[in-house]
Design a protein that fits this description.
Chain A is mainly α. Helix content of chain A is 69%, strand content 1%. The radius of gyration of chain A is 21 Å and the shape is elongated. Chain B starts with a helix and ends in a 17-residue tail after the last helix. Chain B is elongated, with a radius of gyration of 31 Å. Chains A and B meet through β1, α3, α5, α6 and α7 of A and α1, β1, α2, α5 and α11 of B. β1 of chain A pairs antiparallel with β1 of chain B, so a sheet runs across the interface.
């Protein structure tokens, strides 16, 4: 069995370029609820850009530079925007029953994006080198220790948390978001629930 | 379009759409939004608490903390895994303690790591500290405990005058000059480097230094900022900033008395959150729960325009117009 051939045939069958970059979508893909996903991705892109800037300048730069503090503020508000839009996307996907018609994996990967996103934000708070970072670390350690992972994921170890925050978890979030997008494009957008038109909406 | 999608969309009207343009507009809108919020509201950055601040502003608390580390009565000396074999903060879920199973992986001896070790570094520079340290280490455990107890009692009556901590006369032996030496080390801003030094030129692990601060002034300051567990703790942030609102459910459990008063609060909360997270992950396959969106009916609001258009196009019934083709339904 040639795995390369198998993968190519699978992609040729399930993911055409037209599916990947469609220039038309079902008429029901309409309204602001369909914008929460793309707004989450836009926030993630800006998070990564501002984060790369902060990482390139070193972890103490933003405490002593006005420009650095502004870039950190952008990074901070990107985190807020990322979770704001992601939670709205999660809720609207729930109300749409977006896992229907074979989209269970898309839902699971989406929830994983949310969970790993929380871990990324958590390690970011700990990496700030300020009072919030100190307090969140000493509070968080008890929970980590209680489940037996405190020594392997030591929230009091700045070096380890910084590594998690700027490399391991962002790469994981980006990969999961990429996979989520790919699954959305492979399966298409879920259809509305098959119901009759509500009486009050009838012309 | 793949045959699968063609079949899925077979009776659905398609409309022109530009995903790339939508993405670029979203990027621009979010960029303007975050740049504006950053310019208007900035971001929190309260300076860290240091041992130097505690040693200078509250030397009695500093000395009480140091004494607790020396005589092993502080919370970390009796904490348990991963720091030592104590049992003061060991949690378990029913009969299982994951904390005990993981074992001691970051061995911490507070007397040696936080007090005696730093004083050994000071000893060559300050002979009086060196000789006090020698006397203390030569004495037997009973004698050491006698000195420590006397010093602890005296600290409760201590007065601060200027830079000095005045104690009533007593038999403290070498404990008084030793801890005064540690206080001076703290005031010089050298305690954390002395505690956290890794033996290598660079050190990025602050475990011991943070644990020392946790035993002194850190919780007091956190309470002032409304950051402790009973104040919705980790969800909050210093200043008037939104904080980690996405942790609301996790933090919520710590406000429930049954969890908050349990000695196993953390492991219980994490287990509860673990179950809820699994339910969320596996929602598509959980009978009943996966029908909730249909029962709640919010989808009628989300797709109201589409339903209306379908009704206009097919006045008799629009139900079939949005049914997926046979074989594609879950």
């Amino acid at each position: 069995m040639n795995l390369t051939t198998k993968l190519r045939r699978r992609l040729e069958r399930d993911l055409t370029l037209e599916d990947l970059l469609p220039d038309e979508l079902p008429a029901y893909v309409h309204g602001y609820v369909y914008l929460f996903g793309i707004a989450t991705i836009a926030s993630l892109v800006l998070l990564i850009f501002s984060g790369v800037w902060l990482a390139a300048a070193g972890p103490t730069w933003w405490h002593v530079s006005t420009l650095g503090h502004y870039i950190n503020s952008i990074h901070f508000w990107c985190v807020q925007a990322f979770f704001f839009f992601m939670v709205l996307h999660l809720w609207t996907s729930f109300f749409q029953g977006a896992w229907r018609d074979g989209r269970g994996a898309t839902w699971v990967v989406g929830v994983l994006c949310f969970l790993v996103g929380i871990g990324t934000a958590f390690t970011g708070y700990i990496s700030q080198q300020n009072f919030d970072a100190q307090w969140i670390a000493v509070q968080g350690k008890d929970a980590m220790n209680a489940i037996g992972v405190g020594a392997f994921f030591n929230v009091l170890n700045f070096g380890q948390m910084y590594g998690f925050h700027i490399v391991i978890l962002p790469v994981l979030v980006s990969a999961l978001v990429g996979l989520h997008l790919l699954l959305v494009r492979i399966h298409g957008v879920v259809r509305p629930y098959p119901v009759g038109v509500p009486r009050e909406d009838q012309p | 379009m793949s045959p699968k999608q063609r079949a899925y969309y077979q009776d659905v009207p398609m409309v022109p759409y530009d995903l790339i343009k939508e993405g670029l507009i979203a990027l621009l809108v979010v960029l303007v939004l975050v740049c504006g919020l950053a310019a208007l509201l900035s971001s929190p950055d309260e300076p860290p608490l240091t041992a130097q601040q505690v040693a200078t502003s509250d030397p009695v608390t500093f000395l009480q903390t140091a004494l607790g580390e020396l005589n092993g009565t502080d919370s970390i000396s009796t904490y348990g895994p991963p720091y030592n074999n104590g049992s003061g903060s060991v949690q378990s879920l029913g009969p299982i303690s994951f904390q005990r199973l993981a074992g001691v992986r970051i061995p911490i001896n507070t007397a040696s790591d936080d007090v005696l070790g730093p004083l050994r570094m000071v000893a060559p520079l300050v002979p009086s500290v060196g000789s006090a340290l020698q006397s203390f280490e030569r004495a037997g455990p009973t004698q050491q405990t006698t000195w420590e107890t006397a010093y602890g009692d005296a600290l409760n009556k201590a007065r601060v005058r200027g830079q000095s901590v005045l104690l009533p006369p007593g038999a403290y032996g070498p404990v008084a000059p030793m801890l005064t030496g540690l206080l001076n080390l703290g005031r010089a801003g050298l305690l954390e480097p002395a505690i956290d030094h890794s033996g290598r030129i660079y050190s990025t692990d602050n475990t011991r230094g943070l644990l020392f601060l946790q035993a002194s002034a850190l919780p007091v300051l956190a309470h002032q900022y409304h950051l402790v567990g009973t104040q919705w703790g980790m969800m909050n942030e210093t200043g008037n900033y939104p904080g980690a609102a996405w942790l609301w459910l996790y933090t919520f459990w710590y406000q429930v008395p049954a969890f908050a008063s349990s000695p196993n609060a953390d492991v219980l909360v994490i287990a509860t959150m673990g179950i809820l997270t699994l339910l969320l992950l596996l929602l598509p396959w959980i009978p009943g729960l996966n029908q909730l969106p249909r029962l709640l009916g919010v989808y009628r609001l989300i797709w109201r325009a589409y339903y209306r258009e379908q009704a206009a196009a097919s006045p008799v019934s629009s139900g079939s117009a949005v049914d997926p083709p046979a074989g594609l339904q879950a």
